[in-house]
Structure formats: C-alpha cells, structure tokens
Write the structure tokens for this entry.
Amino acid sequence: MKEKFILSTIILLIGGFLTKILGMIIKIVMTRLMGTEGIGLYMMILPTFSLFIALAQAGFPIAISKLVAENNKNNKRLVFSLFFNSSITYNKCSFNDDYYHYSTLSFYKFTS
C-alpha cells in the first residue's frame, strides 16, 4: 500500500512539472505569434473566459470522479465513452476551416 502511494505521488509530481513546462512553452510561442497588443487583448478577455469555463463545467469533474471511484464497470464504460465522444466533437469543431480562419491567432498572424 505504501509503495503504491509513493508511486502515485511521483507520477502526480512528474505530471504537474510537465504541465508547468508545457504551459511556459505555450505562453512563449503565443506571445511571439500575437505580439504585445494581442497578448493585452487576450489577458483582458481571459478572466471572463475562465468564468464561462467554470460555469460550463457545472460540476462534471466531481461527478466523473465519483462515477469512477464507485468501481462499477458500467460507470467506467459510460465515462470513457463520454470522453471519447467529446474529444471527437472537439476535434471536429476545432479543425473546421471556418473556425481556423476566424480564430485570434490567424487574425493577428495575417494582419500584422
């Protein structure tokens, strides 16, 4: 039991560290692509965007954690099918040509 706890802790530490590194790289690249004016607009909109994301989640992460923790086979199947369907929907929406042409990065890339 103790070895599993230590291994889980190490995995969480490594995951947190990699998340911080990737976040730093994304901020550097985004700053270079958008410039100072674009970053200013992004930072102005970010609090409102974060509020809407929090409202849109509506407690789903907690509900999903509860379903998985109950260790019921049907619950796990439901969670993974929801994850798979939502990832496919996100990919269809985000890689749509209309979405790309009107996105912020392409706007600042082609107008500056």
